[in-house]
Design goal:
alpha/beta, single chain, globular, 16% strand, 6 helices, 177 residues, Rossmann fold
């Protein structure tokens, strides 16, 4: 199944999240700041028939899908994010076991099936899972964009450092949407 804009896909990383870990409150606060831009990125992709692929941690629920992961993660502090960012029926979703969205997943096969050569990465944490996934995409020779207003980390300085690294070493565009 090819989209009208068949060379690009949006990959949203770990946005369905418990935020229940050391530094989670800071990451939650910073994620809420980028939520309007994440929604704008997602809505723009849908309007332009760009596939949206959610790649998310499984939280130890190995026999899960996004509904189960969303139910597991949803709580009072994050429900605003989860309620707005849950995948739609026409979105793709993959469960990842580690930091990179490519490691142990079908992401590369899906991107090949969709004819994608340009990936727009968004999500959390910018200095860990987004960075590691972008690095793996670069090693697979994908063109990469990581809009700086669509990623967040526990600390802004760490996020900025990761974005600079992706610009300098992965040739990623970090222009905001």
């Amino acid at each position: 199944m090819k989209s009208a804009n068949q060379n690009t896909a949006v990959v949203i990383i770990d946005i369905i999240n418990t935020f229940d870990f050391p530094g989670g409150d800071e990451l939650l606060k910073n994620t809420k700041k980028i939520l309007p831009d994440l929604l704008k990125l997602r809505d723009n992709a849908k309007k332009n028939d760009i596939p949206i692929i959610y790649v998310n941690d499984h939280y130890g629920i190995w026999q899960s899908d996004f509904t189960k992961v969303g139910e597991y993660c949803r709580n009072e502090k994050n429900k605003e994010i989860i309620d707005q960012m849950m995948p739609d029926a026409d979105d793709y979703f993959l469960i990842k076991p580690k930091h990179s969205g490519f490691y142990g997943t079908a992401l590369e096969s899906l991107l090949n099936e969709l004819g994608v050569n340009h990936i727009i990465f968004a999500g959390i944490a910018g200095d860990i899972c987004v960075l590691f996934t972008a690095n793996d995409a670069h090693m697979r020779e994908y063109d990469i964009s990581v809009p700086k207003n669509c990623t967040a980390s526990n600390e802004q300085q760490q996020n900025d450092r990761a974005l600079k690294l992706m610009e300098d070493k992965l040739s990623a565009s970090t222009n905001p949407i």
